[in-house]
Amino acid sequence: MDSTYGSEAAPAPVGELDPANPWGTFLDVKYASLERFDINDLVRANHRPWYNQSLSRINDCVVRLGVVHGVYPWHEHADEDEFFYVVDGRLLMDLQGERTEELGQGQGIVVPRGFRHRPRAPERTVILMIEGAGVVPTGS
Question: Mapping DSSP to helix (H, G, I), strand (E, B) and coil, where does residue 41 land?
């Protein structure tokens, strides 16, 4: 476990960027119920340093795919918990005032509502997230 973290703001991602959407956040739901999909196709097609795509809606939640590398801004979600699961790579979850949890392939964590956190990926990492459909990834 890496126990060091700072409260500084995250630097803007570097690499192939869209100035209008530097964090690569796509809230449109890409796949309907009963529509088969392969996240590997989306991962292979992605060249952004940080990519967040809503895949499917399940009741009042969405499943999101993240392909991430770098440091995301500190944020919190006032009304919703957030689930992170590492498909491939390594994710560091800074939990303000607490610690940093290091997650490897096959590991997950739930960040409770109202808890300030910051995901970091020291290498290209593929994650799945489950959160309320109304959650904006950069927080409230």
Answer: helix
| End-to-end CA gap in the chain | 28
Separation between Cα atoms, residue 87 and residue 92, nearest integer Å? 14
In tens, the pLDDT along 12-34 reads 566 666 778 878 888 899 999 99
Q: What is the radius of gyration, based on Cα positions, of the chain?
A: 14
User: How is domain 25-132 classified at the architecture level of CATH?
Assistant: Sandwich (2.60)
> What three-state secondary structure class fits 81?
coil
Q: Which two tokens stand for residue 17?
A: 């960027």
Neighbours of 24 (CB within 10 A): 22
Cα(17)–Cα(69) distance, integer angstroms = 13
55 vs 77: CA distance, rounded Å:
20
Low-confidence ranges of the chain (pLDDT < 70): 1-17, 138-140
Q: What are the sequence ranges of the domains in the chain?
A: 25-132
Least Cα distance to 103 among 84, 118, 129 occurs for 84
Distance CA(121)–CA(102), nearest Å, equals 10
